[in-house]
Every structure is written in structure tokens, then in C-alpha cells.
């Protein structure tokens, strides 16, 4: 049993924009690289060049297809393929693909900490970051059972639990230029879909972003009060307004039009 | 709750160096942190113009590539049968002496017997020069099987293209149409751009048979059938014409839409531009007469038939264009029936893009002066942009489809205006650029020009007196006249067939022709070991240069091991494939960050060493001593193409004060290293747009040596150049195609773009092969060399055939079933997965995940070889036979682009659906 701080001064966390995440895995690999050679590493790989390559990652990307509601499964086309290719398939809105990066959410009420028998897992009072002190970790895995988000990664080789540190060894690092004091995943993200800051401060850039884009917490009903937020995909725009749609529906019969003559009177200048 | 070991202020390492990434073709700036002499961490360089600090999955995984167990470590000489992978290690002196002996014999006999092809090379400024010095016409890199359709169509139409030659205006565009697989090139700049675009609320429209990657975040996805994009775009063009949604002022100012085209059927001048006595193009004006079309302050007409002073009839090019696209072929309903996008959607998209172009016009308060000396108070923009790459390119109708995309941009007035597609310096530099391919050898054995270039007329082709191909790959022949990147995919089959010639040595660098870069992979592997009746290999010698144990290594007679990208000098030159963006010209270097721990040498150094041993003129001083004993680093600084013009544009001149041109500066590389390993020159504000006709831009470009003069570069709605080839095929001119090629040349050298069904479709039974099959690489492996990377293969180590659920249902397939994918070429047994974001008439897979068992130092039971697969095995490198039995390359008839995505297949459930049954390949045809 490990105690949580009653409050934290800051609530540092990530805001991840699912509208612009293209699922490129840049954040995941940058995280792996940063931590592999750092004080929370290594992040061991099993069978790196073999049949089942697996390893420790603090951040993983999952891609899902989401079928918009309203299309019952049984409305899908049936019949021989040749026929379908000629007559067309049942109409349905195309599925959306959502890329979902998953890492520790640095919950305000993390059971992964409270279940820890040795105090290895702890939540920092100053910024809310949830860390593992490997010197105290006995590898009992209770914390990974407690975490509903699957954010903890056990290293068989090292016998300890590992997890996202929010790059605590970068964000305060006085040996770095100010601009480098950010988590590696945030610095790497090529679409700038990842943002880092204090979600406990309503005026911070990340909090404003969450407010503006209606960011949400993951599975808040479980009661762990995650700090990280996800920004939902923006509403997809199928058209550019009704004018364009109306314009397109004008019926024009090329046979009735003398388009070439129409352009005879164009007054053009070079 | 103390965490005794927590250290918050640990430095990353003990040293940091800036260089340029080479995990793909994007070429981002990186900061490499070193600790105790080892690479500790690679981060994106925030100062760098390409990636502005971001880094992709490949870039971060570069550390594992640098330390990969698959790295080669010593020169290898084949001892067993070719293909068995039996080698003995030799010393570099022996290896280079042997290579020099082989190549020296060839050069004395006939330099063309060396086929030198450099795959994913990004140092063509060196390798092309070396081939020219050697004197072989048989040189190219990998563009022929990559995206030459896009590059050639762009260069021959507007003097620029997507990716390395142009980009969307990420700051201002309000609507981006992205066609086909686009994750392949320019990866980080596009991702950065998409992030900005979505933040601004601009619309992203993906037209792609597959919804993954960028298409996943698109506002709208149109699942088009592969190979039909030209119909879709043609239908959009018809809609724009019908509704008069056309920027006519743009057309007559910047394109040749108003140029008069002679109508004289059957005669030698039919379809050529009408010109005055001094060869200036003519147009008809409201003054009721022909006037110089390139004059200003005239009022040209874009339709009508007119009689020239000599009595010939002529019509404006625009009229021919309008007649083409107003025809029933491009009616929305016609297109809809073939491309899988309904007519109402086509009409709506046309209305949307017109709305953006004309109702949401942008005006930037930037004063500029055009090439005619007229001052403009502002820059007017059409904020609609297009991007396309390999998805459009990899079809046998790709050249004309790409050209059609550019004509769509012209109608919208959306080329190099605020919010539209923009050129990247040094482009535009001619439509097309002036340099022609070398054809003949000089007295010293060197070729009269670089082996690759732009064919301007039939006279520039590399054909013999009978009109037959001279190059081993048949590039620049009547079969593929504008094959500006060569046709690497044809080299092995042609060399083995002795058609058009036999070669002595195949010299490959970083081209996995024994696997995923080959069409008909199984057949190609057989060909590589095929012997004559006398027991000699049909390709007598193969020299292969690679850093890794790829599938091609086992076919080499001599293997020259390369370094990793962190162990050598390299040059990302403006003479090669630039990394500029629309607002600046840039170039960059790589330099050794780490010393090799193996007996390997940088390919560029090896090439110069070989050149010296071969006594190639450019590699020696006048006294016969080596010109570049310092290797490529010395060459990068000292070599001059023309006086003052070298590989690097930054810090030139003795004192390093000049940019663009200037004497070599001995301290140049030091300056690059001090400045993040790149040079960057911003385009002046007044030169940011309308680069093709902007005096402010062109004067700046001339000052840097990019263009020779400040003249308007006319965008070609109508290609007179293509018409000249058609006329030759119709029996006009000094150089004409042989009889058997005439019909094909006449058809495909249409001066206006058009859509035709991909070749393969017309020649196979589509009822038997009803499904289109395509591939792409995942973003975390795109253009990367070696998906065996320990971290990247944890993301994906096997691929599936993805299929739409309805299609799967009609074939009684479920996830993880195994199917036979059959084409006329053969069949492969692969696992399937359902994917809603797939056009129902299409299947697709991730390419280049599948590996040959035992290659890349992966274990024999690695999923890459057990379950992973390549579609390449069922893609033929040749088309079905012509009436006389001749088989053309499975390629675009204009450019020679490999038609990977024309593939049609049949899918059948494999009887036994046991898990863990490995992938099988059964190829019908050797």
C-alpha cells in the first residue's frame, strides 16, 4: 500500500489530438529511443530479430476502424462478387480510422500506486507525475493489474515494472535548452498532435486547448481521474457549404450549350 | 517517498552533432547525441527547414539501423554458385583491384556493357557524373519504378512537380485534394503541413482506394478504383468548363492556352504552334489579327478558328482542350460508372473547388513585379491545392493522369499563387529543363552529357539507325521516350534476354532487385542465376554495394560493403534532388558522426577510388595524379560542374562569402558543420509566388545560378513537344519511329492529356481477374532501407491482404483466412483481414514487409518470411504479347514508369485454413 499525495501543485500531462494523429508511430519510437538510453532504461527487447519480436514500450499506437452508426450489419451486400462489382455494394458511410496513442495518463487517483506494496510506484506531489522507483520495485505486477489502461510494461529481463515518466528527466533538465524541456514524444510528433503542459492550470495553453476542442478524459467512469486529455476528431466536412452543393446540382446539358461560342466574348488581357 | 536515483538534470550525452537523416528520402535535419562514443539519441533539428524539429518513427529508429546486426562488415567475393550466398571475405585492395579490372576491360571494349544503377541513391549528382565519366549510357537510379510519371508530367507541363519540386501552400490553402498513396515522399513536411491545415479548418479531401494514414484524418474520403483517377479528374474538368469556373486571365497570362495551334491534318505542321518568322508563338486577339502570344497588353481569344497570313487554319489551344473535356467520355455519369465515385459527388467536388478558388480568393498585400516589368500591388491567390505521388504514378496511364491534374490546376489558376501549389527553388527552370541525356562518347571516352536528362524532341532519343533502343532498359527509346529516370525495373530481364543488348557487368547500389524492388520477383531471382549454353551466367558479373544483408547480396559476385548514414560524407545537392521548400532554397550534407567498427567504406569514396583506378578523366589531375585523394568530402568541396558551380551552394568563394555560385571554398564543410549541416537561402518576399513569371523571384534565382535568364516560363496546357513525337509517328521529320512503334507513339503522344484504361486491363480476362490489387508501405517504414529494424518490426513484422468486408463476405472469407491471390503471372497464398476503409473492388497490403527467409539477419522463423509476403511475385514485368509476339515492359508508354498498381487478381479461399501455414509462392511463368 502506497499513499498518494493529497493534492499536487501541478497536474502535468499530455493532450493528444485524435483529429490530426495519422498513426505514424513517431511518438512511440522517439519515446523508446529516449528512454532506452536514459536513466529509466533500458527498455529491453525480446527476440528482436526472431519469431516474436516484443519489447517494452511506454507509448503504443492502436488503430481502429469506427463504422458510423445507423448502418445495420445485415444491410451489407450479399451475392457473388462479380455481381457486386458490377451492380455496386450496399451504400454505407465509409468507416473512419482513428489512431489512438496510449501511454500512462498520470491519473489523479491511480490505483497502480496505492496497490504498490513497496512504495516503488508513487505520484509526485509537485507535478503529479506517476513514476516507478526501480530500486524499490520487486516486480510483483500488482500495479499492472490495477491499471485499466494497460499503461504499465513489465520487463522480464530486468524484473521491474516500467512506464511513461512524462520525460521527467527532460522537462526540468537544466542541461537542456529551454525549448528541449518537453517530453520526447511531443518534440517528435510530425503533425504536432501532442501537447504538454499543466492541466491543473485553467489558463495554460493545454487547458485552453482542451476547453476549446472539448477534450475528454479516457474512461472517467472508472474513477481514476486521468490527467491526460484526448481531443476528438473534428467534425468531418463533406461539403464546403450549401452554395457549392446547390451550384453543383444545376443541370447543364453540354449538348444544349454552345460553350465554345460562349467564350468568344471573353474579354481577356495578358 | 524518496526516489534516490532520480536525476533530473542529466545531460543527454557528452557530445552532439548535427547532420542529415537518411532513414528515408525525406532528408530531415537531425541532432545526434553521443555518449561514450556511442549514439545515444537522435532528435529532429528544430532549426532545420525540412522538419523543424520533428522526427518520424524511422528517424528515431535510425539508432537501431546504425547498430543493426544485418550490417555487412567486409568485402565479399562469391565462391559458390551465384544465389547460394557462398562468399569468402577479401581485403579492400583485392576487391577494388578486381572491380577495376572488370570495369577497365569493359571501358576499353564498350563502356555501355556496364549497367550502373543506383536504386535509392540520393547522390545522383555524383553517380550520374561518374557514369558520364565512365562513358556508359546505361545508368539510372530508381525513379523508373517509383514516381517518374509524376516527375516527368510535371516537368514537361509546368517545370515543377510535387514533392521535391513543389508543395501545397500550407499557410494559406483552404482545400487540399490528395490523390492516392502520398505517405511515400516528403513525409515530415506533409505531416507538419496537414497539422497546420487541419488547425486552420481547411478541408482535406483524400481520393484513394485505401483509407489509412493521411486519408484517415481527411474530412472526406473518396474510395476510388485504382487506375481511374484520370476519369475522375477529367470529369471535374468538364464540370468546371460547363459552369465557366475557369480562371481565363490566369490561363492567358501564364499558360499557352491562347496559343494558336495549326489545323492541317496529315501535314507536317499539324498540331504545332503557329509562329511568326522569328519563331515567336502567335495568338488571335480581339484586334482581329494574329499577334505574338508572348506579348503583353493584348486581348487574346481562347476559342474560334482563324486563318493565318499564309492561309493555314489555326485554333487556340484552349479550344482543343475544351473540346476534349466537354466530350461524353468525361461526363460525370460516365466517369462514375468506372471510378466508383457517384456523379453527384463528382459534381459537388467540382463546385466545392470552384467555390474555394473563386469565392474564397486570397489577396496578400505583397507588391511584386512581373517579368514584363509591370508592378502589382498584391498577390492574388486561389487557395486550392493538389498533391499526388505514387498512387497516381504507378499506372500505365499515369503520365497523362498526372498531366491532367496539372491542367486542372491551370483552369483554377492555382499554380504558384497564394493558397495553391507552389514551386520549390531551383524550380521552375524550364518546361522541361534544358539538359538532354548524353548520347555519344567523346575522344576521352566520356559521355557528351550526363546519361539522364530531358528529351526535347525525337532527335534526342537514344535509338540506333533502325530506331531500336540503345539503352539496356529501353529508356529514351520509342517505347518509352520520356523515361527521364531510366527504367531500373527492366534491366535484369532485358540483360538476360539480350534485348536490346547483352551486358558484362551489372553494378547496383542500394537497389533490392533480388526482392521487393523487382516485378516478378521469383522470375527475377531465376534470371539472375540463368546461364548460357556454355555455362556462363547471362549477366556475367554483378557487383553490389549495400550496407546491409539484403536479398540481393546473395546474387552478387562481388559485394562492396557500405557504411551507415552516420559514418560518411554525403551531399544533398541542388544539382540532385533538392530539399528546398517553397520559401527557400536549401542544401545539406552528412558527415561522419561515428567511425565504422567494421571493414566498410562509404560508397561515394569507393566510387571515386574506382574512378581513379580506371583513370576516368574527371578523377585525375592534368599530371595524371588522383584528383580526389580525399574522397567524397574533397569532391563535395572542389568539384565544379561549370566554373563556380559545385555540389554545394552555401559558403562558396575563397572567403566563403558567396552563395549559389563562386569558387570552391576549402572551409566550406566546416561552415556547414557550424550551421547545422545545411544551407538555407530565403526567397525574397516579393518573389514568393508567381515564380514562373515573377521578376523579383527570377532575378534572385539567377543570382544563385538556378536559371540563366529572367524570362517567363510558360506552363503548357497544350504540349507541342508531345505533338512532335506524334508527328514523327505519322511519318514526319528526320527521326521517325520504326513501323511497329508508330501506332503506339501516335496514340500516347497526345498533346492534350487523356484517360485510357491501364494496359493490363485491356489484355487480360477481367471476369477472371476482377479485383485491383495495390500496395503501400506503412509510414514507419516508407522508403526506409531495412524494415528488419529491431524497433520498427515490433510495430509490424507481417502483412495481411486487406479486403472490404462485403467483398470478403461474398467470397466467404473471415479475418485470418488464407487465400490464393492469382494473376496471370502466378499465385501466392496469403492471410486476409477485413478493412472497411478499402474500396470494395480493391485489395491491398503493406509492401516490403515480406522478406526472404534468412535475409537481413532475421531468424529463419521470422514472421517476415513465414507469413509476410510480397505482391511482386504476381506482378509481371512485361505486358502480354503484342500481335507479333513482342512484349513491352509493364510500364507507362511515355515515361517507362513501372505499372505496379495496374495489377488485377482473383481471390480464392485456400482450402486449408490452418493457422501458421506459411506463405507460399507458385509462379507459372519463369
UniProtKB/TrEMBL annotation, chain A:
CDD domains: PsrB. Residues 12-31, 94-126, 128-157 form the 4Fe-4S ferredoxin-type domain. Keywords: 4Fe-4S, Iron, Iron-sulfur, Metal-binding. The keyword Ubl conjugation does not apply. PROSITE patterns: 4FE4S_FER_1, 4FE4S_FER_2. GO terms for molecular function: 4 iron, 4 sulfur cluster binding; metal ion binding. PANTHER family: PROTEIN NRFC, PROTEIN NRFC HOMOLOG. This is Fe-S-cluster-containing dehydrogenase component. It comes from Tahibacter aquaticus.
Automatic annotation (TrEMBL), chain B:
GO terms for molecular function: 4 iron, 4 sulfur cluster binding; metal ion binding; molybdopterin cofactor binding; oxidoreductase activity. Pfam families: Molybdop_Fe4S4, Molybdopterin, Molydop_binding. It comes from the Bacteria. CDD domains: MopB_CT_2. Its main location: other. GO terms for cellular component: cell envelope. It is found in: Cell envelope. The keyword 4Fe-4S applies. Its cofactor is [4Fe-4S] cluster. The keyword Membrane does not apply. Residues 14-70 form the 4Fe-4S Mo/W bis-MGD-type domain. InterPro entries: Asp_de-COase-like_dom_sf, MoPterin_dinucl-bd_dom, Mopterin_OxRdtase, Mopterin_OxRdtase_4Fe-4S_dom. Keywords: 4Fe-4S, Iron, Iron-sulfur, Metal-binding, Oxidoreductase. Belongs to the prokaryotic molybdopterin-containing oxidoreductase family. This is Anaerobic selenocysteine-containing dehydrogenase. It comes from Tahibacter aquaticus.
